[in-house]
Write a structure and sequence with these properties.
alpha/beta, Rossmann fold, six-stranded parallel beta sheet, 8 strands, Alpha/beta hydrolase, hydrolase activity, AB_hydrolase_fold, AB_hydrolase_1
Length: 227
Amino acid sequence: MDIVLIAGLWLDGSAWDDVLPELEALGHRGIPLTLPGQGDGATSASYDDQVAAVVAAVDAAEGRPLVVGHSAACTLAWAAADLRPDAVTGVALIGGFPTTEGEAYADFFEPVDGAMPFPGWEKFEGPDSDDMSDELKESLLGRMIAVPVGVTRGVVHWTSDARHGVPLTLVCPEFSPAEAQEWIDAGDVPELGAATALELVDIDSGHWPMYTQPAALAALLDEAARR
């Protein structure tokens, strides 16, 4: 099966390099995306541009792909379910949740010169990054891409209730499935609360399992693809 892979903020398609051979060994073709304004060389892009890139990848895939979003890009993956509910076999979210209707996509840190740079590892101390070596952090630091404010401050709108029926898998890295369920039950994640085919699965990793647990992550994505 084709699996569309969307990395979170500051990352391009190379974030999935260690996951691709693991997926291939399981019989899948990984399709890593480098998003507009986030590794394609452009210095400006909008949230809508990134959504369009995801939809284009779904349209170009063979059959009905699984769409995978990591961190903030969980919103982009869920946008595929919103705009192409009958064209995807399911959606997998890694360490993040779809943005609530009417809110900004990912306006988390102050921008500099029209883009939001990676704020440094100190912002992610603890469970997010405890499983990452200093060498890995240093390597990634040099590859982080500042994300245009047209993306981070873009307003999210959902259009089709059909998205709620798309098979949805939430991969829980730095938080547990039990914690995620508590947030859903409390109404903190409306999009997941409305999902009718949601499964929560655990992975023993921090926030970036594509680097620290690529084989385990690929195995969970394989299971999601076979649901």
